[in-house]
């Protein structure tokens, strides 16, 4: 019997491309082709210019911790606890929700620089996560 | 000139089932029982109910409830989305239906086996989310599955920005637990909470710990909305709906509005408050007591700022001054709230708002209570309601 795995994201036309980029080891950002604004989380229309044309660009993967929470309870199968969830302000200007790995929960703090790494689950699922930039 | 709902309608009755961790009955049974209790409180025959409003998350169908209580023909039925954000919205739907003649006696209800049945803390899985799946896809894969985890992200940022401490949150939890000591319905009745116990409680989603979380509860709560004129002829003195609004603001997400420039305020709550105040012709200084939505302790402090009871970052100081206590500036959640009475998704906070206006809370402040502010869910599209004494 295989070990339990994380809940896979439900995929649809508005988000599957992001996870496909992740599967290729890339962190994606959606860019409007009408006004060139970056947006995240992805959505089918630009709320500024109402264009439905967009393209995916690859983020540099560097950012800083905007906020965080350390989850200890309840513990769901497929995740390791304590689980550090972070909001990352990317250098490109968008913000995303992700996980901080290779870090003691006592060491996580606001404003710390982080960098994206791709974590591969035992079942081969790729997910973009972050580690402290100094941990390189 | 826009039509105003001010003073046109009132809450004429409130009804509750007992609250427990295992009701032993169906959610439909809880719904029927709390609605009949609300009718009894108002002095209205359940056979007069001709409108129903509930939450999209409620599992009891309107027609099933109608047959169970022997309701009248229904001429208005509607549901409001966004979890606890629906609470005030149900009253708004009912008030508009009554004011426009679509129905005369509208019941707003929420009944749930929230502990013995499907629990909020069980996390999202795709099974309880029938829309917005793609929205939650950004959180599921990372293990951010429960309301506490989403609220914690905002709470942590807010606390860091304004130097809010665990003790500050503890004062909110303890104030409400103190109120619960006078309320035999409350989960926290007979279970006082000290700061030592609060600070020693296990972490769940930092910075939030056990006592910052509300009570998963089995139970139901209903309120009856009818015209203010009719309510005056009924059994209890009416809680007049003076101001009410729903609100969702730019960049809003359900629970995860993490991508706005500023994370340390609640813009949707500010908008709901401004609109409710404007309709009522009142200001924060006119509000005598409150039932601020409190699924988590941190939410109460932030809302003191959203509704203008103090400046940005000053919520913690108001709490420290004892503002939320019975002799304070703004007695809050005098039934114990979602934290210490029961979590009926905010509907029980509306019921307490009605009691405060009537003067029959188990912790009724000594001062005259003319106006009470009640809010719905925090971190979601929400609403604010100002109830007034007739």
Describe the structure.
The complex is a heterodimer of chains A (136) and B (390). Chain A is built from one helix and eight strands, in the order H-E-E-E-E-E-E-E-E. The model of chain A has no long low-confidence stretch (mean pLDDT 94). In chain A, 28% of the residues are buried. Chain A is 6% helix and 37% strand. Chain A has a five-stranded antiparallel sheet, with helices on one face. By secondary structure, chain A is mainly β. Chain A has a single domain (16-135), classed as OB fold (Dihydrolipoamide Acetyltransferase, E2P). Chain B has one domain (9-117, 214-389): Peroxisomal Thiolase, Chain A, domain 1 (3-Layer(aba) Sandwich), CATH 3.40.47. Chain B has a nine-stranded mixed sheet. Chain B starts with 8 loop residues before the first strand and ends with a strand. Chain B has 390 residues and is of the alpha/beta class. Chain B contains 13 helices and eleven strands. In chain B, helix 1 packs across helix 2 and helix 6 (166-180) packs across helix 10 (297-306). Chain A binds chain B through residues 6-12, 14-15, 40-41, 66-74, 76, 78-79, 83, 85, 87, 94-99, 105, 110, 127, and chain B through 121-123, 125-126, 133-146, 149, 152-154, 156-157, 160, 202-208, 256, 258-259, 263.
Give me the Rg of chain A, rounded. 16 Å
Largest interface: A-B, 35 and 37 residues
Distance between the first and last residues' Cα of chain B: 25 Å
Q: Kindly provide the radius of gyration of chain B, computed on alpha-carbon positions and rounded to a whole number of angstroms.
A: 19 Å
The CATH level-2 architecture of chain A is identified as Beta Barrel
Sketch the topology of chain A as an H/E string, one letter per element: HEEEEEEEE
The tally of structural domains of chain B comes to 1
Strands of chain B, total number:
11
Low-confidence stretches of chain B: none
The main β sheet of chain A shows up as: 5 strands, antiparallel
Q: How many helix segments of chain A?
A: 1
DSSP, total strands of chain A? 8
Give the count of helical stretches of chain B.
13
Shape of chain A: globular
CATH topology of chain A: OB fold (Dihydrolipoamide Acetyltransferase, E2P)
Report how far the terminal alpha carbons of chain A are from each other: 35 Å
**How would you classify the helix and strand content of chain A by structural class?**
mainly beta
Oligomer: heterodimer
